[in-house]
Every structure is written in C-alpha cells, then in structure tokens.
Amino acid sequence: TQGDNLPSNCCSSPSAANCSNNRNNIPDNLKADFDKCVAGGKGGLVVQGSPGGPETPAALTITQYRKAENPTALSSASFVSYPAGGTVIPFSFSDTSLGDKFIFVQFKDNRGGVTAPTEFSAKIQFSPNPEITGPACNLDLKDGSLVFKVDGSNFGSRNSSSTLTADNSTLETESWEDKRVVARMKTPPDVTKGRNYSITLKRSDGAQVTSECKVDTTQIALGAKLFCRTQNNFDQDNVDMSIFQTQGVGVSGPQFVVTSKTAEKVTIGKDGVIQNVKTVLQEGAQYMICLKAPLSLRSCTDRFISTSGTNLIKDFVLPRGDLNADDSINSIDASSLKRQWGPVTSSSTKNCDFNRDGQCNSFEWGCMLKDFNASSAKEPQ
Fold first, then answer.
1. Sequential DSSP letters for 206-244
2. What is the mean pLDDT of the chain?
C-alpha cells in the first residue's frame, strides 16, 4: 500500500524533530495522510506499529445471556455473565405440569448487540414416566422363542430409540403401543418354567422402567415395602387372602359387582410376591384382592385386569400394629407396645416385633403411628 512508503518510525517516535524530518522525506501527495497519522487521526494510511492508526475491531464474543420460559418473562429477566467457552447451565421450570414446555435465551455480545427474543429457543415435552403393571414372558412352542408381553401405561409411540431388553439383551419388537409392548427373544438362554428375567422398557425420550417376569408363570406382586413402608427382610406366612372376580365399567369406576370369591392362606415373600396361590387368575378378567397378615389390618387392592404374567399391584401396604386383633390400630395397641418395650427372646410371648430384629423399639412405634386410628378395610360383597 501507499503506507509502505512512510517511514516506520513516523508515529512510533512522533517527536517534533522526527516528524519534521520524516515529513520532508515523503512525497507531497502523502503529506496529508502523514499529518493524520501523526495527529492520531482515524482513516489515514495504515502504518505498522502506529498507535494512532486505524484499529482492528475486537473479535465478536458472547459476554452475557438471559433465559426464561416465555418471551414476556425474557424481556424482564436480567442479563448475567456468560462463561468463556460456554457451559452446561441448569434450568428449573416453574410450571412442572405435564405437556410442552419452552426455554427462550437471549445473548449479548461485546459490541452491545442482542439476539432476537425468539431466535434461540427449545421445546421440551414433560411426559408421565412409563409404568409397568403386567409383564409376562411365555414360551412359544412353535420355535422355542420367548414372547415378552408388557402391559402398563405411558410407553409412548414406537421409535428407533424405543427398546425393550431382557437381562440386558435387546428384544425384537413386534408391536409398540402406549399401553402394551410385545417383543421376542429368538434364542433364549433358558426357558425353564419359573426362570426369572429382568426386563427394562426404555421410551424414545430416554425415560425407562424396570420390572421382572417369570417364564410361563402367573403371579401377584405387591412390592417389597408392604409392611411399615420399608424393605421387608423375611417371608410372611399365614396371610389370609380373598380373591374377588368382579364386573364393572373399567377398573376405576365405583360401580361393580362381585361374580366369584375364593379364600386361601398364602405366604408373602420378602420381595412382595404372593406365594402358594392356588387360584388361577384368568387373563383379561377383572379382580380385587384383600389381604390380612398377622398383626396387620386388612387392605384391599384396587380392581385390576389380570395378565398372564406378573400382576404388579402398586403402592399397596398392609398397616401393622393391630396387637390385640380387633381390626384397628389405636391407644390399646400403643399401650401394649409400651408394656412390651425392649428385647424379644425366642421364648418370649411378646407380639410386638414387627421386623423380627429381636427388639420392640422405635421402629415398631413409628410403624404404628403411620396408621394410628386406622381400621381394616371391608371386603366387597
């Protein structure tokens, strides 16, 4: 450029003598630009190393940002410093109801520029978690494969990222609906009746749920926190169970009739599975079950539709603390617990040790208080 003809020190050492001498050594047609350079004027000739020459603009960078759930809230939100290089920023929605949610973000740069309010946004769908109520795994005698049928809710629609696995092996999906998924394991390692498989259903959005099924086995599972709402550590025998087959509109309506009833003694395993059940539940039929264990009140399940595999009864508890067997937990039971407070030996006649740890203590007291003044549920007629 023409600036290359200027002395290199014309502005780096702009003393009166230097500038005067240097000015005399350049062509007349460059003297005006030289004067601008010396005076620090912008727009003159570019002279390398000149503090008074034109400045190169700073690189454009993001310095601040603000975020909100809608454009209106975004306009009143405060800008905060944006970390160099970016970062993962946590965000909590004020509206946690199910459905579509949005995040809007505005960025401000080091030159004062601001992005449009709707230029950067994201849509996020809040969906209820998937829930399994009836997993079944049955042998297909035609080809020796295992067919897994999983009933429940909130499975979503079929997607390339939707999977059903059994013991960490991805199954071949045959159908995927919001309330039922059917898949197949073509070469199962074991098809022995009662063989347990751990199954995991993963929805397309990443939400997942895990359950279990046993090959060619129909069972009822109540969950492992049946007593005192804590993990049980023993099998409870001598449990009275009544099974009612019902008819009604849906399983949540108040109107239904009992078409049959069976009663038997069963054992509830520490995993919450009812053992030694003689009654065979019919797949697709509607049932209600009532249970009463020693020292507990009677509780009845909601009505449910039976599956050919595991019938999972959610959020079911048997209130414990009925020490005098009068179908209620009250001050009489509390007084009895206080009298029996302390160690329980093998020869003791105490009946207050709910968790079989050899003590009647604060655990039993807390368990009793959870259902204080409660009474046994009435069986349907």
1. S-EEEEEEEBT--EEE--S--BTTS---S-EEEEEEEEE
2. 86
